[in-house]
Amino acid sequence: QVQLVESGGGVVQPGGSLRLACVGSGFRFNSYAMHWVRQAPGKGLEWVASIWFDGSKKYFGESVKGRFTIFRDNSKNALFLQMNSLRREDAAVYYCARGFSSAWYIMGFWGQGTPVTVSS
Amino acid sequence: SSVLTQSPSVSVAPGQTARIACGGDKIGGKSIQWYQQKPGQAPILVVYDDSERPSGIPERFSGSKSGNTATLTINWVEAGDEGDYYCQVWDTWSDYPGVFGGGTKLTV
Predict the structure, then answer these.
(1) Distance CA A44, CA A7 (A)
(2) What is the largest CA-CA distance in chain A?
(3) What backbone phi and psi angles, to 5 degrees, belong to A74?
(4) What is the C-alpha separation between B85 and B43, in angstroms, rounded?
(5) pLDDT in tens, B4-56
(6) A1 at B interface, C-beta within 8 A
(7) Of B3, B16, B2, B25, nearest in space to B106 by CA
(8) Of A4, A5, A37, A62, which to mutate for an interface test with B (greatest number of B Cβ within 10 Å)?
(9) What are A60's strand-pairing partners?
């Protein structure tokens, strides 16, 4: 069955960096767009970034553009989110999601998330 | 860029019908998705392309759209439907295309 497992979350100081990873299984990873979505404590969902199946196109949310980057290694069925210049407001649970079969921009399947805390 | 507006909360009795609305400029020209998030769990997709249901989602869940308002309807609401519901669009013409509504908490 489809599985997405995120890792790499943790505690980081303001201004620091962190790299999140998401490994997919149970589907042909290199055929699907992938997404990152975050949820701050007690808040709603916020789209962070998306990447096409082959990595050729990338999209970022306004609050993270220029600080975060998204990339993938299809040979390892892995998606990454490199987060630099972290701010307190970046603290959240970060979910990776797989694009939907009929439309790449739909988040058809989600992982369980990895928490990121930004604190000194 | 698009802004999607949802009421913060909806409350219904078991067996009744819940209607959760999502409004926004130009929503009529975009595909709307709905996600359900139960407490402590990851979101799941319950409706896509305005009114389509992914496999495994009960027929009690349906979506519709009229003008600039999309609606998620849950018939014969059960206690297990309690949670947060988010609408979402992909605004192709925006610099920041991925947009979620603020979410609606459904209390049963």
Answers:
(1) 21
(2) 44
(3) -65, -25
(4) 9
(5) 999 999 999 999 999 999 999 878 889 999 999 999 999 999 999 999 999 99
(6) no
(7) B16
(8) A37
(9) A49
